[in-house]
Amino acid sequence: MSISPIQLRHQLHRHPELAFEEFETTSTIIRSIKDIDGSDKLKLHTPMDTGILVEYKMNDDDYLLFRADIDALPIIEENEIDFKSTNDFMHACGHDVHTSILYSFLIDVLEKKPDKNILFLFQPAEEAGGGAMKFYSTDVFDQFKIRNAFALHVTDEYSLGTVASTPGVLFASALEIDIEFMGESAHVAFRNEGKNAFNALRIFLDEVEGLEIEYGESILLGLGKFKAGSVRNITPGRAKIEGSIRGLSVKVIEEFYTKMESVLSNVKSETGVDFSIVRGAQYPEVIVDENMYTKIQSLLSSENKFIDCGMKMTGEDFGFFSQKWPSFMFWLGTSKGEKYGLHNPKFLPPDEVIEIGKKILVKILINI
Q: Which tens digits make up the pLDDT trace of 290-311?
């Protein structure tokens, strides 16, 4: 007998795993799916060490792809609940809920046997490393003609059951960056004998802020980690910042990146401090197909509060899939008064959102 979607959510929440390390998560999902009545009608594809693509085929028509992400974050949970994380990681972005919604949807499909062809993707590494692109690069999708792709993301920005999306760009393109400044350390009493990497970093931040202002709302440089120096009486010979550039499109980000490199070169000329940039994962913008948006807005508005939320600077690697097939992605509200935000150690959607999300996917499946 299969476990319930809520039981699956609790199990995944207790044992979160980071990007590309979701080995037990994948095994748990596979075991749970195989225990569902009628699962012998499914075909399971595992082209990567983690993640799984589940095929449900009923005819010779095109496929609809529904995706959930399965990885967690290196955040220590602060919720005191009976299914609290047992390690130093946490599903602080709700991927345990996404997975459980898709699992619940799969159960519903096997019970009702709709005459549709469906792919259920439990995708690894959304948070880091570009799992969508890497899963696609295995060529596992080459055997399927996919008509449309769908995904959701929970958030406590909106009240429970609210659906929020927008036609066109929903989530920004995102590029992870690490910038290191390499100077020469010196005793603070003789600081002019060194090349202060922290000063170079500070000058860069001042100048790049002006560049960011020029772009207005089409670009955002977000920096979350800073490191410089080792002891109080030695000026830093090295300094490093880690963050991401968010933009309206990949093109806008690349243009900003080039100008940012020019700023760094100017700082080097001014201070004598060298620099290096390491590019990390890059996600294209999530594009919501306008025709699908109009149809689904009409479809869901009768039972769910439906909001046109406009573009958000959130990065989401479902954007890679939205470049391949006409897609619809949406926020699913979870708040019952609380508003901690994503990636917060107290972010905790209620279990009841799983059923709400499942019903929405069922409605989309039947009417698209």
A: 999 999 999 999 999 999 999 9
